[in-house]
Design a protein that fits this description.
Layout (H helix, E strand, L loop, with lengths): L5 H16 L5 H29 L6 E7 L9 E6 L1 H24 L6 H20 L3 H19 L6 H32 L4 H11 L5 H17 L8 H4 L5 H10 L4 H8 L1 H5 L2 H25 L3 H21 L3 H28 L12 H4 L1 H15 L6 H15 L3 H26 L13 H13 L2 H4 L13 H8 L5 H25 L3 H8 L1 H11 L4 H21 L2 H6 L1 H14 L6 H24 L1
Antiparallel strand pairs: 1-2
Helix pairs in contact: 1-2, 1-4, 2-3, 2-4, 3-4, 3-10, 3-15, 3-20, 4-5, 5-6, 6-8, 8-11, 8-13, 10-15, 13-14, 13-19, 13-25, 14-15, 14-18, 14-19, 15-17, 15-18, 15-20, 17-19, 17-20, 18-19, 18-22, 18-23, 19-23, 24-25
Length: 625
């Protein structure tokens, strides 16, 4: 277990070397440092995981305090690490998938300006995420939480010469900061009520201190959920994710598959005792928000033309499924889908990067076409990854986790959430088929060249295999760490009579979505959709979905424009001008007083006499009283 600190120290060292040396390093040396440090981190992680699983009993927690970080009165959090089944799962995902993304990036970024700078940010990103999931207290978690936020800003705005990219980076940073402030409020409340921010002490003490639906605990839970919404791009703090595609494609893969957007899911799962005592917050603020988000993202994906934005909205949708699972108490299922999603979403984003390079940085799927023959490995990566996204039964990893979520909503009796999840599966099939069909089939609209290189092929092949049913063989060691769900309990008791019904409905929705997509885009060749778009209703709906259902316009009206108006008012500095009243009064008094400075002795004598007479009158009046 002594290798555990090295999992985040090695990428941090890589960041320091790359940040200090910058352009003095050649691309080869920068690759050795950036990818090599990530590879060593993955090796240390998997050795640690193997040792933990072989030596520790089910549900065990291994604590590794390193030093006392700070001491303010009774507040003395450790800089310490903690390892259990949940952090083991996250450790494997972050380092394993993160290394594959780094390896692919060494091929994708070849010849780009700022090569070493790019890998320094990537290393810091992974190190921050590892701190987030390995920290034994919420202060250390918050440090990693802010670290991934800063790295997302740096990487989304990597091509900063384009002002639009800088604005996208600022948008991501600002929107996620809103959630971070709420998370900080939640931590303050926890420390005030529980007296500690050590994660496992909180897990143990919360059921002892609080009763069911305690108002303070409900407020704390809401603050935590709002923090999770920001990082995991859930409504209403979701608008940054689609614009985050401004960064290089490996960045998108890292954000969407191995880091950042999974942080909110991890936070809620890690602090599950708080939410088990606040079931209304869990169902409405987590489950229902996740269900709404997955539908909104599905409709938005249907109207997108940029291959990366389609995948971005699909991520928002899949994180919505994870929130939905958490909301109905399916803790283990949510983390299982987090793992499977990391496999197929990393595969899809890396494959999209290969597509973009092949067609000379074109990202519009309607300007591609015919790519399956030019880049067959990328084509099959999209077929398998898209199949997992749509949850093709039995052969793809997405089926085993996504349909488990839909079954859990059915098992808990939340039928409104169940039908929303089924509708989401229907929409996913349509936009996934649409994306693959227009990019890889039909006539070639943009000349594409073949691709080569082991550093791009190896990550795709490994992720392709993990995105099949093979990935479902990996069972996260969550027993004893996260509670069993209602569906799991029914299965153990042999009462899961509705499971096959729920699965058949989900599979039917997926198959019907593929059939509808085939009819619209292949059989009908899009004529029906073109006619619908030309109508006033169809045009409005398409515009609405293409622009993210108008959330950006709403936030611009409610927040941005009032802020700019206040800025214009304060530009004149009214506070400073208010203080100018004092010198103006002094100047006015001086001018009045200067009127009496005539230089006439006779006038001064008269004034003196009148003053003395006035004083005598006042004195006599005082004596008389």
């Amino acid at each position: 277990m002594s290798l555990l600190p090295l999992t985040f120290i090695l990428p941090a060292i890589g960041f320091l070397i790359l940040a200090i040396m910058r352009e003095r390093l050649s691309e080869q040396k920068a690759t050795i440092v950036g990818v090599g440090s990530m590879g060593l981190s993955a090796i240390c992680a998997f050795i640690t995981i193997a040792q933990f699983l072989s030596s520790q009993p089910t549900g065990a927690v291994l604590n590794m305090p390193l030093w006392t970080w700070m001491r303010v009165g009774d507040f003395a959090p450790n800089f310490g690490l903690s390892l259990d089944g949940l952090s083991v799962t996250m450790l494997g995902i972050i380092t394993g998938v993160g290394f594959l993304i780094h390896l692919f990036a060494s091929w994708y970024m070849r010849g780009e300006d700022g090569f070493a700078r790019f890998f320094s940010y990537m290393n810091l990103f992974v190190a921050s995420m590892l701190l987030l999931v390995l920290g034994d207290n919420l202060v250390l978690l918050y440090l990693g939480w802010e670290g991934v936020g800063v790295c997302s800003y740096l990487l989304i705005g990597f091509y900063y010469a384009n002002r639009a990219n800088g604005r996208a980076a600022m948008k991501a940073f600002t929107v996620t900061r809103v959630g971070d402030v709420f998370l900080a409020f939640g931590l303050f409340l926890l420390f005030r009520e529980v007296g500690t921010l050590n994660i496992h002490e909180i897990i143990a003490r919360v059921p002892e201190i609080f009763t069911l639906n305690n108002p303070t605990l409900q407020l704390t839970a809401i603050m935590l959920v709002l923090g999770a919404m920001g990082k995991s791009a859930q409504i209403p703090l979701h608008s940054w994710l689609a614009d985050a595609m401004a960064g290089p494609t490996p960045v998108s893969a890292l954000i969407h598959a191995a880091t950042m957007v999974t942080a909110g899911v991890y936070l809620i799962a890690r602090l599950h005792p708080i939410f088990m005592l606040t079931p209304d917050v869990l169902l409405n603020w987590v489950g229902f928000v996740g269900a709404v988000t997955l539908l909104v993202a599905g409709f938005c994906a249907l109207a997108q033309t940029d291959i990366k934005r389609i995948l971005a909205y699909s991520t928002m949708s899949q994180i919505g499924y994870m929130f939905l699972a958490l909301g109905v108490g399916a803790w283990q299922v949510a983390v299982f889908h987090l793992m499977t999603h990391a496999f197929f979403k990393a595969l899809l984003f890396l494959a999209s990067g290969a597509v973009i390079l092949s067609v000379h940085h074109e990202q519009n799927i309607f300007k591609m076409g015919g790519l399956r023959k030019k880049i067959p490995l990328v084509f099959w990566s999209f077929v398998v990854g898209g199949g997992a996204l749509a949850a093709i039964p039995f052969v793809t990893v997405g089926f085993y986790s996504k349909d488990a979520i839909i079954w859990e909503t059915f098992a808990t009796g939340n039928m409104h959430l169940f039908y929303m999840a089924v509708l989401g599966a229907f929409l996913t099939s349509i936009y996934t088929f649409r994306m693959i069909w227009f990019a890889f089939f039909g006539e070639e609209k943009t000349h594409a060249h073949a691709l080569s290189g082991l550093s791009y092929q190896i990550p795709l092949v490994i992720l392709l295999i993990l995105s099949t049913f093979v990935g479902a063989w990996i069972t996260p060691p969550l027993d004893g760490v996260l509670p069993l769900s209602q569906g799991m309990l029914q299965e153990q008791a042999g009462h899961a009579h509705g499971k096959h019904t729920a699965e058949f409905i989900a599979m039917g929705a997926m198959a019907f979505g593929l059939l509808v997509a085939w009819f619209l885009y292949v059989a009908n060749k899009g004529r029906m959709l073109a006619q619908f778009k030309q109508s006033s209703l169809g045009g409005a709906m398409y515009y609405w979905c293409y622009n993210g259902l108008g959330f950006d316009a709403l936030y611009d009206l409610v927040f941005v424009k009032p802020f700019l108006l206040i800025g214009r008012l304060l530009k004149a500095d009214p506070v400073d001008k208010a203080w100018n009243v004092l010198p103006a009064l002094a100047i006015m008094g001086h001018r009045v007083a200067s009127l009496f400075q005539s230089g006439s002795l006779r006038g001064y004598a008269v004034s003196f006499g009148l003053g003395m007479a006035l004083l005598l009158v006042l004195v006599m009046a005082k004596i008389g009283n």
